[in-house]
Design brief:
With 284 residues, the protein is an alpha/beta fold. The chain has 2 domains: 10-200, Alpha-Beta Complex (Spore Coat Polysaccharide Biosynthesis Protein SpsA, Chain A), CATH 3.90.550.60; 210-276, no CATH class. The protein has helices at 22-37, 76-89, 110-120, 158-164, 176-186, 210-226, 230-242, and strands spanning 10-17, 45-52, 66-68, 94-100, 105-106, 124-131, 153-157, 190-200. It has an 8-stranded mixed beta sheet, sandwiched between helices. β1 (10-17), α1 (22-37) and β2 (45-52) form a beta-alpha-beta unit. α6 runs antiparallel to α7 (230-242). The longest helix is centred in the last third of the chain and has 17 residues, at 210-226. The N and C termini lie far apart (39 Å).
């Protein structure tokens, strides 16, 4: 591939930490350096911007520029990423923002593959392909077209951020990436998986957590409320009460912020496949 156009020339990596173990961040940093080196032939470089939502993170020295934003409490994933995107895109050199989970490991070719894919599909949100476990949602193996993209390693081009803004601040945790993907599609963009852009992210060894499960249902309830699906909203509310995730249903927030306003086009929303939010890729 020929070098990218002279402007923009920078890919910003955004990391939100929450009591991230030092060994985890060391592993992430060791993998970022070789991945950033592979951007040089494309006429691009990388920089990192981070924010702590818990205790101050113990970051090792990086081979790329690193700006740490002042903590503002526990903003959640979407809230933290929104602060990072605003900071990153304030730099005119930045053409793309990459959400990166701190517990993941970028393959050395990840960043270059994402930008190559973005050059082919500049009107797309682009998700890295996770390994050793992939999300079971379906996607086209050639074009990468899919219905939503995971925020664990998600490339957001400036033009999409300029058009639809960041994540919905009303979603504290989980499914903010589903909502963001639906909003992007409703605005005329596409969502894709880059099959050769690999991001190591193992999740199967996580212990069951009732708080996490409660957040899932609370976020799903909000998603159904926002996307005007009253039957699905009522179903999630029944589970919340029956499972004891809340003694009473908390009030839903007003849909007044730019990123939380009810969408004019609700057709991208898909609830019939449960928390997969898409047809299952393998099997029935």
């Amino acid at each position: 591939m020929d070098a990218l156009a002279p402007a923009p020339t920078r890919l910003a990596l955004g990391v939100v930490t929450y009591n991230s173990p030092p060994a985890q961040l060391q592993r992430l940093v060791r993998s970022i350096g070789p991945a950033a080196d592979r951007l040089v032939p494309l006429g691009c470089d990388a920089a990192l911007v981070s924010i702590d939502c818990g205790d101050p993170a113990d970051w090792p020295a990086l081979a790329i520029p690193h700006r740490r934003l002042s903590p503002q409490g526990n903003l959640g994933f979407g809230g933290g990423m929104n602060r990072l995107m605003a900071e990153a895109f304030a730099d005119a050199r930045v053409g793309w923002f990459l959400c990166v989970n701190p517990d993941g490991v970028p393959h050395r070719d990840l960043l270059a593959e994402l930008l190559r894919f973005a050059a082919r599909y500049p009107e797309s949100l682009i998700e890295a392909r996770q390994f050793p476990e992939e999300y079971p949602k379906s996607y086209d193996p050639v074009s990468g077209l899919t219905l939503w993209a995971s925020g664990a390693c998600l490339l957001i081009p400036r033009r999409i951020w300029s058009a639809i803004g960041g994540f919905d601040d009303n979603i504290f945790m989980f499914m903010e990436d589903v909502d963001y993907s639906w909003r992007a599609r409703g605005a005329g963009f596409t969502v894709r998986v880059a099959p050769r852009a690999l991001f190591g992210h193992s999740v199967l060894d996580r212990a069951p957590d009732l708080q996490v499960e409660a957040w899932y249902y609370q976020s799903a309830r909000y998603l159904a409320y926002k996307w005007r699906r009253p039957a699905e909203q009522a179903g999630f509310e029944r589970v919340i009460l029956e499972r004891g995730f809340a003694a009473a249903l908390p009030a839903l927030p007003p849909l007044e912020r730019p990123n939380s306003r009810p969408p004019a086009d609700t057709t991208p929303a898909m609830f019939e496949h449960g928390f997969t939010y898409a047809p299952i890729r393998w099997g029935g």
